[in-house]
Amino acid sequence: AVGLHEGLWMSCAAQSTGQVQCRLHDSLLSLEVHIQTSRALMVISLLLGFFGIIVSVVGMKCTKVGEEDPVTKSRIAVAGGVLFVLSGLCTLAAVSLYATQVTYEFFRESTIPINARYEFGSALFVGWGAASLSMLGGSLLCCSCPAKERRGQQYHRQSQPSTAREYV
């Protein structure tokens, strides 16, 4: 094998001929603790993100679903934003936990040669980017709630003074 890749769901070996053979992890209970924890956090993150999408769509001003009150709709949008922030935090925790374990195993004294140890892969960087974007989007949704002093304020059109002369 030219390259070995290990993730949360499977282990793969790439050959010099271009063939890639992947194998799912056999048993959930035989996995290491950091993989089990990262798996659980990623599933929780996916669920929170899914519910965040649904709640945010209901809270959008352009949808007819839900209350017609703009304050209630903005509060629903803020709840969707909170779900997105929590989803991003779960993703960040899962990816960082896995990266910490990879770093620990790389620098640990062992009999494995240095060129056969695992290093950071592209999935870790994609995970960090996804967590950042999810938290950014969630925080922008959280900022959509109107301030308390502006909630009761209505927009009124101010009349302009007439510049035309009135003839009597």
UniProtKB/TrEMBL annotation:
It comes from the Eukaryota. One of its GO terms (cellular component) is bicellular tight junction. Its main location: other. Keywords: Cell junction, Cell membrane, Membrane, Tight junction, Transmembrane, Transmembrane helix. It is found in: Cell junction, Tight junction; Cell membrane. Pfam families: PMP22_Claudin. The chain crosses the membrane at residues 40-60, 76-100, 120-143. One of its GO terms (molecular function) is structural molecule activity. It is a multi-pass membrane protein. Belongs to the claudin family. Claudins function as major constituents of the tight junction complexes that regulate the permeability of epithelia. PANTHER family: CLAUDIN (PTHR12002). This is Claudin.
